[in-house]
Amino acid sequence: MPISSNGSAALTVAAARRIALGAQGFAGARPSGPPTRRTLAKVLDSTKLLQIDSVSAVVRAHYAPVFSRIGAYDRALLDEMAWSDTARRPRKLVEYWAHEAALLPVEDWPLMRWRMIKYRHGRWAGLGRHRDEKLADEVQSVLREFGPSTAGEIEKHLELDRPRAKDNWGWNYSETKVVCEQLFASGELSVPKRVGFQRHYDLTERVLPAEVCAREIDEPDAIRELVRRAASSHGIGTETDLRDYYRLKRTQTEPAIADLIDAGELEQVSVEGWDKPAYLHTAARMPRRVTGSALLCPFDPLIFFRDRTERLFDFHYRIEIYTPEHKRVHGYYVFPFLLDGEIVARVDLRADRTTGILRVPGAFLEPGHDRTRVAVELAAALREMADWLELDTLEIGARGDLATALSKAGRVRVST
Q1: Phi/psi at 31 (5° precision)
Q2: Whole-model pTM?
C-alpha cells in the first residue's frame, strides 16, 4: 500500500511498525523452494548489512537474520557469498565496520572510505594508539608473500614472540593483531575468509575487484548514500534511527536528510507518541497486515537499535551478556519473538551441540498477549530453529511466566 502523509494526521505507531517490518523483509511470503544465493541476496536488499558478533551461544549473529526472514537455509550459501571468490561465483559480501563489524555488499565498500581515512590508526586512534608503521609494513610484506593469514600465522612468519598485554583496545591482543586490526580499519587489509570464526587477513586489492578498490566517493556523497540506504531499510525512522544504522554522527546525517527531502526521496512525517520528527522513505510500502512468526537474534537489524525497538514495539530490550548472572532479568542470550507484527515474548536460548539439545532456560510472555497461542506458535518456531541447527531435542527450563505453557505446547522434555 503506497503511503503519503500530505499534511494529514500523524501516522499511528501500528502503521509505522508495519512500514518498518515491510522494509526489513518480514511482510513477504517465505520462499516455496530451497533458498538460493538469490534468495539471500533479497534479504540483503532489505537489511543492507548483517552484523557480525563473536557470541556463538545459539548461532553466529550474521546467520540468524536470514533465518528469521526466510526460514531454514544452508548457511554455506552465506559463507560462500562472504568468504569465497571464484570466476563463476564472485564474492558478494565483504567485512567492514558498518553497524559495528558487519557484512555488507562488496559494492558498498567504497562508501566507507571516509571512515577508513579516519581509522588510519585504527578505531581507537583517539585514545592515542598510533600504529607501528614498521610492523605494519612487515605485516603487509608477509601477506604479499604468503597470502591470507591469521595474526598468529603472520607472527610465526615474522618470528615474533611478543608478550600480550591489556591495552586501550580492551582485549588481550598481541601487537601484531593490533596492527592487523588497524590495517583492516584503514581499508588496507580485508578479510577473504574466516576459519573457526578467526579472521584471515589479506591485502584489500587481492580481496576486492579493482574497480571497487579504485572508486573514490567524497564524504558528503557517501554519507548521503548511507542515509538513503538506512532509510530504505527502515522504511520510516527518526534522525537518530537513520544515524545509528551505519553509526554516523548527527552533523553528518542532518544535511544528508535535508538533501534527500529536497530530492523527493524522504518525506518528513509525524508518528503518534514519538517526540521527534520521522522520515518516510517515499518508496516504502505499508502492508495491510503482517503475519507469521520469527525469532530475532539480539543483533538483528530490526531491533539492534534499542531505542527504536522500544518506540516501534513498546518492548524494552537490553542484552545481558555482560551482566553478572545473578543480576540478569531474562538471561544471557535472549531472542525476542515476533508474531503477526508484534513482539509477544522473549526466550533465553542456548544450542548444546554436544548433546543435540536446543535449551530454553527461560521463556517470558509480554503483557497483553494470549499465553496459549503464543506458546503454541513459539514452540513451533523453536522446533524449526532446532531442525535448522540440526539439534534433535528442545529442553524448556523453568524460568519465566511462559515456561510451563511452552513446555505443554511443545511436548518437550522439561529440565529441573
Answers
A1: -60, 140
A2: 0.93
